[in-house]
Fold each of these.
Amino acid sequence: MSTLTKVLERNIKVIEKNADLTEGRFRLGHHLMPPVGWLNDPNGLCWYKGRYHVFFQYAPFDVEGGLKFWGHYTSEDLVDWKYEGTALYPDSPYDCHGVYSGSALAESEKLHLFFTGNVKIDGDYDYINEGRETSTLHVESEDGIHFGDKEEIISFEKYPEEFTCHIRDPKVWKENDRYFMVLGGRLKGDKGAVLVYESENLKEWKFKHITTPEAFGYMWECPDYFELDGKKFLSVSPQGLKREEFRFQNIYQSGYFPVKEDGSVDERDFREWDMGFDFYAPQTFTDNSGRRLLIGWMGMPDAEEEYTNKTIDEGWQHCLTVPRELRVKDGKIFQYPAKELERLRKEKTILDDEKSIVEVRVEVNEGFDLLIEDIAVTDRSFQISMGGQMLFKYENEIAEIGFSEIAGAGRNKRKAKVSELNNIRILADTSAVELYLNDGEIVFSTRYYPDREDLQLKVKGGKFMGNLWNLRKMIFTK
């Protein structure tokens, strides 16, 4: 451990020492969040030696972002979590201006982490075409907690010449007896693309090809390539798409392409992962049971001019989504909360739809799980209101979420086209809400900040079967 690493480790431990993962009006009950400071992309998601590992982009010294480290959580069951501390520090010549995003490869005896090291040269540079060095780095671990020396496996000097300095976020996987890597990039013509590499030993990497359709944004971040139910998909977070009424509603997007037999993708096939205000940079992985799970960042880069987070006053910002199980139906990927999360359920209230309006009081400071099934819309629209703080509305084949001025903190409305509404599940936390429509065909993920600790939940406009559970909080330990 270098002197710099020791100093960084000591300073982080000092500011984390008094951090309580459960204290504060908007501290979350079943979403992973930073002890202090800033969180963004989920990194290094994997199952290794009997535990789930979730690393994340972490800026402990500044609630608004800044110098990036990797924080680290582990769990045996996806329900209760242990904070393992800071896993990676910006302490080498390759990453002195930030340990950027990456992935994990879990093999029988070793856990491999791959990530981007960020270096910004002092001077008058735009840091897009010049002034930035972003090499791909690798570290190993034999226990998933302690990591060895960093090594540069792809130097910034060896990337294809047609790219700008913006190449990052390696995702690595093994296929048969070979290893593959995708990196997100920005071509010099301001066009997003993915670089594909191949290796026999995780040390030497050979550039294979570039994957990009017609112009579709100027930068692709956080690529992920995976196979699900016999079909191959490429997930990316493109920047620079034109915002529309029913799609691309956020400043940046996240979605996936089905991959064709020849390995190409078509921008017309792109489908967004999430239609809410706060979702970006998702990553998937398979666990010991063979399930493919997804976790996303419940935040959005560069959105501060439009909306904000009231947790800044508590000294922290952003969280991750709950783990979601993925499956394919009719060529689309459906997402649904991992089955294990049902263990958080406590008392159940059966909602009686014999009345025209069903009302029940819910404790926001505990969180709740609402499941409404067999929906038959009888009025002009079907609505779920959370004390006027959040309103879900389905009308004329359009699903919409909206927030009050206080609860939204600048967030107003988001929409999605849905031909029919069969069921809806709402996972509500103290300051985060995830809505799953039609078993996860459409998802809305959003931070929100109700001004009361209990709300009157109202459901009206249709026949249905409904259950409401209060949720216990996850156990967070350090």
Note: The first helix runs from residue 3 to 17.
Amino acid sequence: KLINSMGGWEVLRSFNLYAFDSHRVIKQLHADYGVNAFFKVDVVADVKSPGRNIIRISPGGLGMPHKSYYQRLPDDPAVLAYQVYLKDSAQLFGAASPEAHKFSIDMFNFEKRLAEITPDESFLTNPVKTNNRMTVKDLHTASMNVPWLEILKAAYSDAQMSEETEILVVSPR
């Protein structure tokens, strides 16, 4: 019911392009369901202002344990096992086998592309490289297809949020 309420899912043959609102869906996933779709939004201690917190935007993570798994050959046992897992998961939601198989291949390839731009662990653990302050407006300018202010307001409704709110962006790329 939740999948259908957000516009459906092609794998289940319930996707309706005209009923799909990507801004509403990404906002709902982050604010209502705690899903780190494409990126993670959380609150951390502000190292520049002791005693204060700041919102941080960071990579959302990948399905496999490390980005190096996505560089393996297509017939690697770990790659094949992950694709079986994706297929089985789609089938548990009611997808037919051919659609679930196509989904598993497409999802793996999509995550492979995400892995290519995901920073290495050495970058992510370096506070000098990951402490990139920006305003919500600057972030929106850098990635206009994401309704940043709407997502942040929905996720942190008690906080005062505007386009001038400063946030940390771990990896501006």
Note: Residues 83 and 105 are 7 Å apart (CA to CA).
Amino acid sequence: MKLTIAICTWNRAQLLKRTLDRITRITPPANTWELIVINNNSADETEYVLDFYTSRLPLRRIFESQPGLSNARNAAIRNATGEYIIWTDDDV
């Protein structure tokens, strides 16, 4: 079974960085999970934060230009490859 962890974010790069740092401590078997981060048109350093973690996590980045959490979540659903989606926030 493959899981998708989905994080929707908007202009909270520093909180996202702390969350991604904690997620690096997760060690499930390879190829059993993916992490997708939906950047909901952030104007801060979100893309730089994602650059740093791309090689450290099974991370895929999705850009959603339409503002709003529902648009970001719908983008996550469209792009998830896991059988289940685990939703979390950028400030966990």
Note: Residues 15 and 91 are 5 Å apart (CA to CA).
Amino acid sequence: MLKDYASYDALGLAQLIKNKDLTATELLETAIAQAEQENPKINAIITKLYDFAHQQIQQGLPDGPFSGVPFLLKDLLGSLEGTALSNGSAALKGNISPSDSEMIARFKSSGLVIFGKTNTPEFGLMGATEPKAFGATRNPWNLNHTPGGSSGGSAAAIASGIVPMASGGDGGGSIRIPAACCGLFGLKPSRGRNPTGPYHTELWDGAAAEHVITRSVRDSAAMLDVVSGPDGSTPYPVPKETGFLACLDTPVRPLKIAYTVQSFVDRPVTDDAIKSVQHSVALLESLGHTVEQVHPYINADHLVDSYLTMYYGHVAADLEFTAKLLDTNFSNLDVEDTTKLMGYIGKKISAETFVSAKRRWNDFSQSMHVLHQEYDLLLTPTLGSEPLAIGALELGFLDKLGTKVVNAFGLQNLLLKTGMSRKVALNNLEKLPFTQLANLTGQPAMSVPLYWTESGLPLGSQFIAPMGDEKTLLQLARQLEQAQPWFNNTAANTLTKTS
């Protein structure tokens, strides 16, 4: 057993195995022991794959950069042959994946040992991880708060010291939001950088990407070297590129960075969010970067409408797909009332409305293109407030009752006409207003843990780069990591204080 297990990142653990300081089995048993100790407090792991992991080791692991390192998969999208993939829904409990998805195959090629799956909101739809099917995941920094979503289970598992790295997906901030909530590093790669096949050509029309959440910058970079590159399903592939880990050896050049604390959905943000960026600005300037406040032109109404149209449309399509998979009707699916309501709203949206909303994505890309003619990066808060309390995004009793009535009597058109569905969505987006932009433009973006609130909760800073420029993000993150180390400032060391 490795006593100081939580003090290593994934590459560090892999080096211990290469040096024969311990075996992959010993490392796995350490991770399992840590999971058994911490998971009852946080509910991060919902599927144990301990036997599967031991079989991986017995069959022989690939000689990759992470050979023998314990790893957790988010229970969404990632298809691991012969294991359950529920997507956070009671409707899909017991649904067994027939084969590995390409991302999972590439994860495995790196030598990772997969020993469990992590919690996620139903179909990954919320910025908090509180599915009815599996219960809420709690933030290790404060068990009364959310670890974010939709990769909240993965982030909580890392922050509690169960693993140094776990998988995530990001369709509206679902890597960056949990990273920000849990004091971790989270990179959303450029559109097309990582594979989506063979089950998908694009994820959420190209808005979503899969990668990992990590404690160290170098783990994220090394994993990008492993998994990046097109597959047979990629429609518009970014050319295969390597050297993401190697680029960390080159100091980042002095950058010209724009920053804003103005919400992209035109709602107020908290003082904590503003302070997080002010802290980052001061740090960046001390490192020799030029930082200037800007107000990029992003039409808030168009951003909200474009994102929600895509969101509702894909919920509707996902629920129809699920109904066919289970040989039942859409209306009979065992899904949460809010999920079903969003699916019904998606069914009411016309093809013309969907296409018109998708075309507006180009407006956002052009606005960011103009900004990047002058600035290397855009800095914003990752979150609009500190991590929310458990249940903060849950509907009140009357709203829940209203949702049931709307679903029962088919009143979704009324919600669309009165704008009630948009109002509810805006109330949720108000707390998470900064991340969706990079999903619609396809740009790479990262959340870096540079600030903790007075109450002791993390609140990350987001950086957005031009399309395809992950290396500048990673180099800057490495510089920030060295200037203000966060690796040992983890909830794994403080969990007992809040439990």
Note: The longest strand covers residues 113-118.
